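Hi W.,

Here's what went into the run:
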Amino acid sequence: MNDFWIILEGSLVAVSCGLLGAYLILRKMAMVGDAISHAVLPGIVIAYLVAQSRSSILLLLGAALFGLLSTFLIEILAKKARIQSDASIGITFTWLFAIGVILVSLYSGNADIDQDCVLYGDIAFVPLDTLFLGERDLGPTPIWLQGFNLFLVIAMIRIGYRGFLITSFDPSFSSGLGIKTDTWHYVLMGAVSFTVVLSFNAVGAILVVAFLVVPPATAYLLSNQLQTMMIYTVIFGVLSALIGFYLATWWSASISGAMAVASGILFLGVLVYQKLLRKRKKFLAITN
Amino acid sequence: MKKIVLLAVICLGALSCSQTEPKEEQEEKFLVVATTAMLGDAMEEMLDTTVEVVTLLGPGIDPHVYNPTKKVLDHLAEADIVVSHGLHFEGRMQDIFEKMSRKKTVIFLGNALPESKLIEPEDAGGFYDPHIWSDVELWKEALVASIPQLEKSGHYNKEGAEEYLKKVEDLHAYAASQVQSIPQKNRILLTAHDAFSYFAKAYGLEVVALQGISTVAEYGIKDVEKMVDLIVERDIKAVFSESSISPRSMEAVMSGVEQQGREVKLGGILYADAPGEKGSGAETYLTMVKHNVDEIVAALK
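Here's what came out:
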């Protein structure tokens, strides 16, 4: 049963991150997940300083708020300062992370407060994090949270599919049509920030950053059509979780590491397959 | 899209369930899982020989950066007793242990001690320093406090435990007398990170650490300067580095002292968070503390 919970949690994270990641890739903001993983530090420290406790809900809230703030800053910098989005991501997250490091060294020097200690969970512990209702064992807490989050993400995409699509592909065209580009952007980024922080808490950073980028990028190799791309993303995400889990068991290694590696292997496999296919076509065209 | 997700979940379920079934055939030993070797070797001595003791954190591993593998999960899931330090030493793992304690016996060794004996670092916001094992007497008290829970398991080895606790007691006496042999003005311990405050309090030394308990905030130039000034001002003979932390920080301090035209030597490696590797001569709790005491005495005397 433990194996099942881990694979299920990996798949849930893969699907919710992957679906959001598909939009991020179209917006050339794939590294936002990595940015958020660093930018949450001041949020954690401030939540800790205000509450003087390590209660994980408060810290999670602080982290999510700073995740959201970082996406705001990224957008504002890109727009007002007219710099590339990768540069604005770089500026924003290093700046916020650095503020966090300063806060740690100034105010909480003797308490063990950093994202490694209080925010990042590990997927290996998911089956042990049981949710109790009275004395009843309802299964792992992260599964419930992640499942609920995935439900919200899917609902949001169903409702806003076209809006997200058009504002992702061509922001200036869509604002010309009178579509509120900013609103769509912030709704999407809010969802990204919340999903990412929640997933960090359950499975750790590396897996989340990988699942946000790699499965949708793999899918993008196969299709330019968003809907098809999302279907492929789901398939590659779940496959990565599954293959990664068995790799980890086989190697007796870190599970989240193995899942991230599996997603990379899938990406490479698809890339090579495509190249070979193209070569073959060219070859056939020449010989004919 | 939802259909695909559902389908995938069902497939996964089928796959992973079929994989887990045939494991539980062989007869299993009573499994005790300890987070560190300090706990692990105490459990080996205090429980009878029919139990199997597994230690999660090997030598030289910083518990702050720890990646559990699938095996760790299996051990924890199958464990009959989990023994941990508590006092947040295990970081986020402690939350998991607290959840697990509703289903099986989990011992939080440090949590059984009275608050008056714990050290609360400045600005730690109500957290206690978890490094209690460096005060051998306090460690013994914590071990004694765990005996009722061990007895309940039915595998408590009274003779072995008494013998082991006697050894711990002797070690305390040894440490106390050895530190007494250091001249009063030399009794100051300069280390890389803050892991020896219980040791210092128990045996009458002063301790100054370069780094706080968390490892994310790196030591600043100011911290190095402060330590250099202290060494020059009080004519301190040696600084110490730790087995799980890079010696670079201490090298910075030493070259700072040299620039002032003085000399300070590196007083050897101390084992702070975990015993050493096999062959290091400090692979158990008892030998690790003895090693630390001997290094400190040799360098400061």
